[in-house]
Specification:
227 residues, alpha+beta, Aminopeptidase, 6 helices, 8 strands
């Protein structure tokens, strides 16, 4: 736990800034600029499986436009669009949500990385940029990841990204007419310096060979639950 919180002050709500990395760029959602690219990245036939655990379902283009415009107007979340820097192509989206400024808690959620960036350096750096901004820049103490307890790929991803598993809230939600038990994961501020160093080591160009294959895994680079 943090040693001394006597001078703790509430954290600022995330502002719509661009976060730039080596492989990924996070741009605040703009329906005019991003809707076409997001629809192409996330609503194709190959993305059908992705919607199994998302709250939304696959949509046609007009429905998606209305949905993305409504999302952009929300003041309780901040949605970033993930852009692959090498191509300029939109690959996915992710939200800062469940923001508790008083206690310094923030969640990365509503993550939808399309097939072009899923399980790549782009997606990993998108997570890293988001976490580092929340913890290092904005000063949040707790960075959360939660998912349907049946979503094994999401649970594996959380652990791979260095989140610590905390348990399951049973009968936590009703989602698409079915019960949802929710698995909870977190990264704490005191764990972040070690995790950040691991991410930076993994993302370094020299960690990848000429074909783009990693030489060290995230865990081997130092990204492990608990920091």
């Amino acid at each position: 736990m943090s040693a001394d919180l006597a001078h703790w002050t509430p954290r600022p709500f995330p502002t719509p800034v661009v976060l730039e990395g080596q492989y990924a760029r996070l741009e605040p959602l703009d329906p005019v600029r991003h809707a076409d690219g997001l629809f192409a990245a996330l609503m194709g036939d190959e993305a059908e499986q992705d919607h199994l655990f998302l709250f939304e379902t696959r949509m046609d283009r007009p429905t998606f436009q209305s949905w993305i415009e409504a999302k952009a107007k929300r003041t309780d979340i901040l949605c970033h669009v993930v852009v692959e820097r090498a191509t300029g192509r939109i690959g996915g989206r992710q939200d800062a949500m469940r923001v508790d400024q008083t206690h310094g808690v923030i969640e990365i959620g509503s993550i939808h990385w399309g097939p072009s960036i899923a399980r790549t350096r782009v997606a990993t750096e998108a997570l890293f940029l988001h976490a580092d901004h929340a913890i290092s820049t904005l000063g949040y103490r707790r960075y959360e990841w939660k998912c349907h307890n049946g979503n094994e790929p999401s649970k594996r991803a959380a652990k791979r990204f260095g989140f610590s598993f905390e348990g399951v809230f049973r009968q936590h939600m009703v989602a698409k007419g079915k019960n949802r038990d929710t698995a909870w994961f977190s990264i704490l501020d005191q764990e972040w310096p070690a995790l950040k160093a691991g991410y930076q080591a993994w993302l370094a160009p020299e960690n990848f060979d000429a074909t783009g294959q990693q030489k060290k895994s995230l865990a081997q680079a130092g990204v492990r639950p608990g920091g």
